[in-house]
Amino acid sequence: MKKLSLLLCGIFISISFLFAQNRSANQAFTFGEELNFEVSYGWLNLADAKLQVGKKAVMEDSRPHYKIDAFGKTKGAATIFGRVNDNWGTHLDTGSILPSLSYRHIEEGNYRKHEKVIFDQKNKVAKMELYDRDNKVLKEVKEYKLPGYVQDLVSGFYFLRTMDLENLKKGQEILITGFFDKEIYNLKLIYEGTERLETNLGEKETYVFSPKIPQNKLFRGDFPVKVWVTRDKNKIPVKIKANLFIGSLNLDIASAKGLKHN
């Protein structure tokens, strides 16, 4: 089951840093938004996932931030292989749409990891704090230099939604930079155009993106992952599909509430 978690994490890393080198005012989401997803492999429902924006602002360096959490939890028959109950989070500056803080609380079988990263975007430094399995004792502190403004695992999803996607041209390649798990990621993403898609929220016109992922034994094809984002003012992700060496993994939106635009 840890391989499943790493796979899901890799998918989110690949898509979460979209357009992270641009800046824009947020007109797409607001406090209290909640997006729920179903994770499936073929006929098997593996997990539930949720993206949630806190109802109130949190303060970092006297500036208001969105508190955004991503939750993933196995369910049903998938728990036979080991229970997963993960939480990734970010504190995202409401003005710059850049993260000041990110955190991970990982529970996968007997494995535990609790990590916090404090971003100093101005001085291009990230400080990582690693805690014990009970998330009580600070075990390790390290600092990392950043090449410039970066997004984290969760914040990049929301940064994407602030962008004017209508100006993209089909086939356009975008090189973006992010920081996750002690490393700098330079990722290339391809804009595939638009597609009309049937979802649990009804039929939606969507933008389609494909991140370029290095060859490995898990994925199949040159562009194994696709992401569908609604072509409306909310710009919410409604589907993610990853073609694996055998079969495919799908994340499909189940419900949405607290959207900024009806």
List keywords for this structure.
about 260 residues, 15-stranded antiparallel beta sheet, 15 strands, globular
Care to describe what's here?
8% of the residues lie in helices and 52% in strands. It has a 15-stranded antiparallel sheet that branches. The chain has helices spanning 2-16, 155-161; strands at residues 34-41, 44-53, 58-60, 63-74, 85-93, 99-108, 111-120, 125-131, 138-145, 173-180, 183-199, 202-211, 225-230, 237-243, 248-257. β6 and β7 (111-120) form a beta hairpin. It has two helices and 15 strands. With 262 residues, the protein is mainly beta. Mean pLDDT is 86; it is low at 13-23. The protein is globular. The termini are far apart.
Secondary structure blueprint with pairings:
Elements: H1 2-16, E1 34-41, E2 44-53, E3 58-60, E4 63-74, E5 85-93, E6 99-108, E7 111-120, E8 125-131, E9 138-145, H2 155-161, E10 173-180, E11 183-199, E12 202-211, E13 225-230, E14 237-243, E15 248-257
Antiparallel strand pairs: 1-2, 1-15, 2-4, 3-4, 4-5, 5-6, 6-7, 7-8, 8-9, 10-11, 11-12, 12-13, 13-14, 14-15
